[in-house]
């Protein structure tokens, strides 16, 4: 038997959804407004994977080339995605020189009894002789309690154990949270993405 964090979380929250999604393998027929968060996150992840693989900045930004804007969605737009990755590159390009990237977009597993526990990691890095999981998250709003959702997280605990078994140590998880949103500029009365 194999299980991962997404499957386990789905089962804990709604056994019927787990059955429909993972046992019957049912999928949505069409993409709707609710899927824009997932698609935006996928494009961002692709861009960050390219960034940490040290691909060209143009290729990082091109991760949003196929993204289609959804009517009435002001936060998760193609332009905001391009702006987000551009600003990320500008901000971290000089700071990431001390960080050694060990791997990106890893799918691995380890045993818990007779069960294979599958893990998906965004990036594994070495910094100051310590090994970390660099976990990328996108959100339109980082509220005061945003990071509370990661306390005793099954996802992060699984990542830590996988890294410990593979590399002999895991110093922790670095949460790399990217905020992309939309606001009104009060002084001009015009809209702007950020």
Highlighted features:
two-stranded antiparallel ribbon; 6 helices; 194 residues; disordered C terminus; alpha/beta
Note down, in words, how this protein is organized.
The chain has 194 residues and is α/β, with parallel strands linked by helices. It is built from 6 helices and 7 strands; from the N terminus they run E-H-H-H-H-H-E-E-E-H-E-E-E. Strands 1, 2, 3, 4 and 5 form a 5-stranded mixed beta sheet that branches. Strands 6-7 form a two-stranded antiparallel ribbon. Strand 3 and strand 4 form a beta hairpin. The longest helix is centred in the first third of the chain and has 17 residues, at 36-52. The radius of gyration is 18 Å and the shape is globular. Residues 185-194 have low confidence and may be disordered.
Write the SSE topology:
Blueprint: E1 2-4, H1 5-13, H2 15-23, H3 36-52, H4 57-61, H5 78-92, E2 100-112, E3 115-127, E4 130-139, H6 154-167, E5 172-179, E6 182-185, E7 190-193
Parallel strand pairs: 1-3, 4-5
Antiparallel strand pairs: 2-3, 3-4, 6-7
Helix pairs in contact: 1-2, 3-5
Brief summary:
This protein is α/β, with parallel strands linked by helices and 194 residues long.
Shape: globular
Spans with pLDDT under 50 lasting ≥5 residues?
A: 185-194
Cα separation of the termini:
44 Å
Quaternary structure classification = single chain
């Amino acid at each position: 038997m194999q299980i991962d964090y997404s499957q386990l979380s789905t089962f804990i929250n709604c056994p019927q959804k787990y059955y429909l999604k993972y046992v019957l393998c049912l999928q949505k027929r069409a993409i709707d407004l609710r899927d824009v968060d997932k698609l935006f996150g996928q494009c961002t992840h692709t861009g960050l994977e390219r960034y940490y693989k040290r691909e060209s900045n143009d290729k990082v930004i091109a991760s949003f080339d196929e993204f289609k804007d959804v009517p009435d969605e002001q936060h998760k737009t193609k332009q905001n995605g391009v702006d987000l990755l551009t600003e990320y590159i500008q901000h971290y390009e000089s700071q990431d020189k001390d960080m050694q990237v060990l791997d990106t977009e890893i799918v691995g597993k380890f045993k818990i009894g007779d069960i294979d526990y599958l893990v998906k990691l965004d990036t594994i890095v070495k910094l100051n002789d310590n090994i970390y999981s660099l976990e990328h998250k996108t959100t339109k709003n980082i509220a005061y309690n945003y990071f509370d959702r990661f306390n005793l997280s099954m996802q992060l605990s699984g990542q830590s154990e996988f890294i410990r078994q593979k590399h002999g140590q895991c110093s922790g998880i670095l949460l790399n949270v990217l905020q992309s949103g939309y606001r009104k500029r009060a002084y001009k009365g015009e809209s702007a993405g950020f």
